[in-house]
Amino acid sequence: MAHLNEQQIGQLRQMLDKRYDELREELHQEVNDRDGYLDVATEAPDPGDASFANLTLDLDNAATTRDVTELHAIEATRVRIEDKTYGTCVDCETAIPFERLKAQLTAERCTPCQEAYEKKHLDAGRGATI
């Protein structure tokens, strides 16, 4: 993290905090919306309504999983900031450029290592990437 100055770290922390708050609000909204769809799914005498409600619940579950995964990534990033490993690639230990960190706040790898990781791990494309 030596390549990041205090101002950059402060800016990244602020961005992380903002995104964390946004995700928590999205999750809160998703839970509230899900309750309404559950009511429709359990009461719906019409198969079309029930099918739509079930599809909506499936999509909400995927969105919730994505948001929770990102919240965990933000929490892990905060730990890396505290232990001064944030901004250092977990694979090659080179500095991750500030611009990349601004674009992908939770980046653990430099771009070349992230590309290599995604080629080796098909599931890696499910989360945030380059």
From TrEMBL:
The name this protein goes by in its record: TraR/DksA family transcriptional regulator
Keywords: Metal-binding, Zinc, Zinc-finger
Domain of life: Bacteria
Family annotation (Pfam families): zf-dskA_traR
Keyword Metal-binding: yes
GO molecular function annotations of the record: zinc ion binding
Organism this protein belongs to: Noviherbaspirillum saxi
Domain annotation Zinc finger DksA/TraR C4-type: ranges: 85-119
Zinc finger extent (dksA C4-type): 89-113
